[in-house]
Amino acid sequence: MSGNRSPVTIGIDVGTTATKAVAVDDSGSILARSRRPHGLHFPAPGLIEHDADVAWRRGPLAAWADVCRAGVPQSACVAAMLPTLASVGADGVPLGAGLLYGDARGEAVSGLPPVGNEEFVGFLRYLAGRHPDAAGFWPAQTVANFALAGRAALDTATAMAAVPLLGADGWDAERCAQLGVAPEQLPQLVAGWQPAGLVAGDALGVGSVAVPGEAGGVPLGAGIPDGLAELAVAGAGEAGDVIVTLGSTLLCWVVTDSWLDVDGLWTIPHVVADRFCVGGPSNAGGLFWDRVRAMLGDPPPGEEFDAALAALDPGDLPVWIPSVHPERTPVAGRARSASLLGLEATHRRAHLHRAALDAAGFVVRRHIEAAGTTPRRIVATGGGTVVGPWTQALADCCDLPVYVGAVPESAALGAAFAARLVAGLETDLADGARWAATARIVEPDPRWVGPCEARYQRFMTLLDGK
Q1: What is this structure's pTM?
Q2: Which distant-in-sequence residues (6+ apart) come within 8 Å of 64 by Cβ?
Q3: I need a surface site. Which of 55, 361, 369, 464 has the fewest CB within 10 A?
């Protein structure tokens, strides 16, 4: 950046309802931010998709141009959901819909070994049948990388979602052939933090901005999973920390100091050495909250909503089952659709809004209890942290303090830190913890804790249809 000695990096997050981008200095301070909304489409029950050209290609291009106005970046990296997949033409432009996690078209493929999450393989089988002459089949990161830097690159961490198509030496040609595709139609894999390409400023309409790099461009990383990016900058690396991402998808990870195999949950390595995360995703996040608001209308703004909730009797609320889409982990529930139980004639919108927020808290508590560890606090990240009543409901339902992250664009922030590794400014993704900052601490409200406990017990009975 002109006149600024601190290296600036850009992180872009292709999310479920918007593409976010941040330009960040080496202290983690946000110099510029962008949010480019895109539509989420449900063409039929069980199906969920994007217009991949709008969300995965045009959105990152526009977000890049937005934050580049803050100055010249040293490097950049793209985070995105996983798994995702779209068919693309030779010009890298998607030929149709981009399929998203949880879509029924990602069902397991017979003849291939089960690995517990076969969605990428199912997506590839479906798209290969629909677009047999496609030049490629790329996830969101690769579509964005090609749009930005002209290379169909993908990081190996994101590519793990493609197991068993991914082998020790790259794409498995024999298994690809079973699906009617060639390895050349899949992304070029890039291990570690080697630059996957260079983003040229002039080509993206940023005018006279000069950019660094051997060929006059900004080094672009091959990508990073959004959850990994958030984990890097959450600042929650102690056993007993519970990391909750309030995004379109609710993610709950309980940090442990040993590897635990828990029925119905996933276990992954933490970015911090000798730490692990047990948990998984749920549709009880923004996917559910947005549906509730679409039906009931938005709650009143700010203090007016707080006053309406304060006037409620904590023991007089219905119970929501929040699965507006089939869940991906058994612990999150087996219901294939949402439901509302215990609605009384005296209930108003405020009752239903608070009950919807409580449903997310109940799902988090269920994950914590299933992990079988003792929690000490919740660290909340993601765009939903700006909704104060949501973090309060989380504290009340789990009877734990909630440390609210200071940067709602947590995945973009994590991608910006990953970009520092691409630029050679860092050597360990775990050092992203120094960018973690707490905006506020939300304590459980004693008036609500007891009634939340009673409704949670009913929620547990209803969730599995007992």
Answers
A1: 0.92
A2: 10, 12, 21, 76, 148, 199, 204
A3: 464
- Phi and psi at 231, nearest 5°, equal -60, -35
Q: For the segment 69-114, what is each residue's pLDDT rounded down to a tens digit?
A: 777 789 999 999 999 999 999 999 999 999 999 888 987 555 555 5
Give the per-residue pLDDT at 147: 96
Tokens of 85: 């997949």
Q: pLDDT tens for residues 252-276?
A: 999 999 999 999 899 999 999 999 9
Q: Does residue 378 carry a pLDDT above 60?
A: yes
**Residue 215: Cβ-neighbour burial (10 angstroms; 0-12, 13-18, 19+):** exposed
> Is pLDDT above 70 for 50?
yes
pLDDT at residue 203 above 90? no
Q: Write down how long the chain is.
A: 466
> Are 343 and 355 in contact, with CB atoms under 8 Å apart?
no
Tell me if residue 99 falls in helix, strand or coil: strand
Map tokens 């010249």 to a residue.
Answer: 72
Q: Which helix (H) or strand (E) holds 189?
A: strand 188-190
Grade residue 167 by pLDDT with cuts at 50, 70 and 90.
Answer: confident
Instruction: Write the DSSP string, 113-163.
Output: ---S--HHHHHHHHHHHH-TT-SEEE-HHHHHHHHHHS--EEEHHHHGGGT
Helices (H), 283-438: 286-296, 302-310, 349-371, 388-398, 410-422
Q: Please tell me the distance from the alpha carbon of residue 178 to that of residue 125, in angstroms, as a whole number.
A: 9
CA–CA dist 106, 328 (Å, integer): 11
In angstroms, rounded to a whole number, what is the distance separating the alpha carbons of residues 211 and 216? Answer: 6
DSSP 3-50: T--S--EEEEEE-SSEEEEEEE-TT--EEEEEEEE---B-SSTT--EE
Instruction: Give dist(CA 119, CA 136) in Å, integer.
Output: 18
Please determine, for residue 211, whether its predicted confidence score (pLDDT) is greater than 70: no
Question: Alpha carbon of 239 to those of 272, 416, 464: distances in Å?
Answer: 11, 26, 29
Antiparallel, parallel or unpaired: β 377-381 and 241-246? parallel
Using an 8 Å Cβ cutoff, are 119 and 160 in contact?
A: no
Tokens representing residue 161 in the block: 């979602």
In contact, 31 and 8? CB cutoff 8 Å: yes
